[in-house]
Automatic annotation (TrEMBL):
GO CC annotations, alphabetized: aspartate carbamoyltransferase complex
Family from the record: Belongs to the PyrI family.
Note describing how the cofactor binds: Binds 1 zinc ion per subunit.
Oligomeric and partner information: Contains catalytic and regulatory chains.
Cofactor dependence: Zn(2+)
Domain Aspartate carbamoyltransferase regulatory subunit C-terminal: start-end pairs: 104-148
Name the record gives this protein: Aspartate carbamoyltransferase regulatory chain
Amino acid sequence: MTDDHQLRVSKIQNGTVIDHVEAGQALNVLAILGIDGTSGETVSVGMNVPSDRLGRKDIVKVEGRELSQSEVDVLSLIAPAASINIVRDYEVVEKSRVVRPETVSGVVSCPNRNCISNADEPITSGFAVLSDGVRCDYCGAIVREKEIAANLDVS
Ligand code: CTP
Ligand code: ZN
Protein backbone atom coordinates (compact mmCIF):
# COMPACT_ATOMS: atom_id res chain seq x y z
CA MET A 1 0.00 0.00 0.00
CA THR A 2 1.51 3.31 -1.04
CA ASP A 3 -0.04 6.73 -1.15
CA ASP A 4 1.44 10.19 -1.12
CA HIS A 5 1.33 10.35 2.64
CA GLN A 6 3.31 7.18 3.00
CA LEU A 7 5.97 7.68 0.34
CA ARG A 8 9.21 8.16 2.24
CA VAL A 9 11.74 7.98 -0.54
CA SER A 10 11.15 9.75 -3.86
CA LYS A 11 10.51 7.81 -7.03
CA ILE A 12 13.36 7.52 -9.45
CA GLN A 13 13.39 8.21 -13.17
CA ASN A 14 15.78 5.54 -14.42
CA GLY A 15 17.65 2.93 -12.49
CA THR A 16 17.11 0.15 -9.98
CA VAL A 17 15.03 -0.10 -6.83
CA ILE A 18 16.16 -2.84 -4.47
CA ASP A 19 13.09 -3.35 -2.33
CA HIS A 20 12.23 -5.70 0.56
CA VAL A 21 15.79 -5.71 1.85
CA GLU A 22 16.05 -7.22 5.32
CA ALA A 23 16.00 -4.35 7.81
CA GLY A 24 19.55 -3.48 8.81
CA GLN A 25 21.15 -4.58 5.53
CA ALA A 26 20.90 -1.37 3.47
CA LEU A 27 24.47 -0.28 4.15
CA ASN A 28 25.71 -3.74 3.22
CA VAL A 29 23.74 -3.51 -0.02
CA LEU A 30 25.59 -0.25 -0.76
CA ALA A 31 28.91 -1.93 0.06
CA ILE A 32 28.15 -4.79 -2.33
CA LEU A 33 27.28 -2.35 -5.08
CA GLY A 34 30.45 -0.39 -4.40
CA ILE A 35 28.50 2.76 -3.60
CA ASP A 36 30.26 5.10 -1.18
CA GLY A 37 28.89 8.40 -2.43
CA THR A 38 32.04 9.47 -4.25
CA SER A 39 31.03 8.57 -7.79
CA GLY A 40 28.26 11.11 -8.13
CA GLU A 41 25.29 8.81 -8.72
CA THR A 42 22.05 9.71 -6.94
CA VAL A 43 21.18 7.09 -4.33
CA SER A 44 18.30 7.05 -1.84
CA VAL A 45 18.16 4.76 1.14
CA GLY A 46 15.22 4.00 3.41
CA MET A 47 15.87 2.12 6.62
CA ASN A 48 13.33 0.41 8.84
CA VAL A 49 10.48 1.44 6.59
CA PRO A 50 7.15 -0.20 7.51
CA SER A 51 6.32 -3.13 5.20
CA ASP A 52 3.22 -5.32 4.99
CA ARG A 53 5.29 -8.35 4.12
CA LEU A 54 8.37 -7.96 6.30
CA GLY A 55 7.23 -5.76 9.18
CA ARG A 56 10.19 -3.49 8.62
CA LYS A 57 12.38 -3.33 5.56
CA ASP A 58 15.20 -1.37 4.00
CA ILE A 59 15.04 -0.03 0.46
CA VAL A 60 17.80 1.24 -1.83
CA LYS A 61 17.19 3.25 -5.00
CA VAL A 62 20.04 3.80 -7.42
CA GLU A 63 19.56 6.31 -10.24
CA GLY A 64 21.02 5.56 -13.63
CA ARG A 65 22.19 2.05 -12.99
CA GLU A 66 20.85 -1.41 -13.78
CA LEU A 67 22.48 -4.19 -11.79
CA SER A 68 24.40 -7.09 -13.26
CA GLN A 69 23.41 -10.69 -12.53
CA SER A 70 26.51 -11.24 -10.42
CA GLU A 71 25.68 -8.21 -8.29
CA VAL A 72 22.15 -9.55 -7.83
CA ASP A 73 23.59 -12.96 -6.88
CA VAL A 74 25.65 -11.42 -4.09
CA LEU A 75 22.72 -9.33 -2.89
CA SER A 76 20.69 -12.53 -2.57
CA LEU A 77 23.16 -13.73 0.05
CA ILE A 78 22.40 -10.87 2.43
CA ALA A 79 18.88 -9.96 1.30
CA PRO A 80 17.15 -13.22 0.35
CA ALA A 81 13.68 -11.64 0.15
CA ALA A 82 14.73 -8.66 -1.96
CA SER A 83 12.98 -7.67 -5.13
CA ILE A 84 14.81 -5.93 -7.95
CA ASN A 85 12.77 -3.37 -9.86
CA ILE A 86 14.20 -1.91 -13.04
CA VAL A 87 12.77 1.56 -13.62
CA ARG A 88 12.75 3.33 -16.95
CA ASP A 89 11.10 6.70 -17.43
CA TYR A 90 9.51 6.43 -13.95
CA GLU A 91 7.81 3.09 -14.70
CA VAL A 92 8.77 -0.30 -13.27
CA VAL A 93 9.54 -2.24 -16.45
CA GLU A 94 10.95 -5.36 -14.82
CA LYS A 95 10.41 -6.86 -11.37
CA SER A 96 12.11 -9.98 -10.09
CA ARG A 97 12.88 -11.63 -6.79
CA VAL A 98 16.49 -12.42 -6.10
CA VAL A 99 17.35 -16.10 -6.40
CA ARG A 100 20.06 -17.59 -4.22
CA PRO A 101 22.58 -19.34 -6.47
CA GLU A 102 24.03 -22.69 -5.33
CA THR A 103 27.57 -21.38 -5.67
CA VAL A 104 29.27 -18.02 -6.04
CA SER A 105 32.70 -17.52 -7.55
CA GLY A 106 34.89 -14.46 -7.60
CA VAL A 107 32.69 -12.32 -5.36
CA VAL A 108 33.42 -13.29 -1.76
CA SER A 109 36.98 -13.60 -0.50
CA CYS A 110 37.96 -16.29 1.97
CA PRO A 111 38.61 -14.96 5.50
CA ASN A 112 41.22 -17.68 6.10
CA ARG A 113 44.56 -16.04 5.34
CA ASN A 114 46.18 -19.45 4.78
CA CYS A 115 43.57 -20.51 2.27
CA ILE A 116 45.03 -21.33 -1.14
CA SER A 117 42.52 -18.94 -2.69
CA ASN A 118 44.40 -16.13 -0.90
CA ALA A 119 47.85 -17.26 -2.02
CA ASP A 120 49.63 -15.57 -4.90
CA GLU A 121 48.01 -17.95 -7.35
CA PRO A 122 45.60 -17.28 -10.13
CA ILE A 123 42.76 -18.98 -8.26
CA THR A 124 39.21 -17.68 -8.35
CA SER A 125 37.46 -17.87 -4.99
CA GLY A 126 34.53 -20.28 -4.84
CA PHE A 127 31.88 -20.77 -2.19
CA ALA A 128 28.91 -23.05 -1.69
CA VAL A 129 25.81 -21.13 -0.62
CA LEU A 130 24.33 -22.29 2.69
CA SER A 131 21.09 -21.16 4.31
CA ASP A 132 22.83 -18.55 6.46
CA GLY A 133 26.16 -17.97 4.79
CA VAL A 134 28.70 -19.43 2.38
CA ARG A 135 31.42 -22.10 2.66
CA CYS A 136 34.82 -21.88 0.94
CA ASP A 137 35.33 -24.63 -1.66
CA TYR A 138 39.06 -24.72 -0.90
CA CYS A 139 39.34 -24.72 2.89
CA GLY A 140 35.80 -25.05 4.23
CA ALA A 141 35.86 -21.71 6.07
CA ILE A 142 32.38 -20.34 6.62
CA VAL A 143 31.39 -16.73 6.10
CA ARG A 144 28.11 -15.93 7.85
CA GLU A 145 25.49 -13.78 6.20
CA LYS A 146 26.29 -10.75 8.37
CA GLU A 147 30.01 -10.97 7.50
CA ILE A 148 29.66 -11.29 3.74
CA ALA A 149 29.67 -7.56 3.00
CA ALA A 150 32.97 -7.24 4.87
CA ASN A 151 34.53 -10.07 2.83
CA LEU A 152 33.89 -9.01 -0.72
CA ASP A 153 36.30 -9.86 -3.50
CA VAL A 154 35.19 -6.90 -5.58
CA SER A 155 37.37 -3.85 -5.35
N1 CTP B 1 9.63 2.94 -7.45
C1 CTP B 1 10.45 4.05 -7.51
N2 CTP B 1 10.45 4.85 -8.60
C2 CTP B 1 9.62 4.60 -9.64
C3 CTP B 1 8.77 3.48 -9.60
C4 CTP B 1 8.80 2.65 -8.47
O1 CTP B 1 11.21 4.31 -6.59
N3 CTP B 1 9.63 5.43 -10.67
C5 CTP B 1 9.68 2.07 -6.27
C6 CTP B 1 8.39 2.04 -5.49
O2 CTP B 1 8.39 3.08 -4.53
C7 CTP B 1 8.45 0.68 -4.82
C8 CTP B 1 9.24 -0.17 -5.83
O3 CTP B 1 9.89 0.75 -6.69
O4 CTP B 1 9.19 0.75 -3.62
C9 CTP B 1 8.36 -1.09 -6.62
O5 CTP B 1 7.38 -0.31 -7.27
P1 CTP B 1 5.95 -0.91 -7.60
O6 CTP B 1 6.11 -2.20 -8.32
O7 CTP B 1 5.17 0.16 -8.29
O8 CTP B 1 5.36 -1.08 -6.13
P2 CTP B 1 4.60 -2.31 -5.49
O9 CTP B 1 3.56 -2.83 -6.41
O10 CTP B 1 4.17 -1.89 -4.12
O11 CTP B 1 5.77 -3.36 -5.37
P3 CTP B 1 5.75 -4.83 -4.71
O12 CTP B 1 4.51 -5.52 -5.19
O13 CTP B 1 7.03 -5.45 -5.22
O14 CTP B 1 5.78 -4.61 -3.22
ZN1 ZN C 1 39.18 -20.70 1.95
